[in-house]
Amino acid sequence: MVPGRVLMWGALALTAVMSACGGEDIA
Hints:
This is MHC class II antigen. By secondary structure, the protein is mainly α.
């Protein structure tokens, strides 16, 4: 079972990675 907090931080990390790769369209 994965806590919602882990999913939240995971989403933030993914957004940061995508932004760094030039995927700012996922703002």
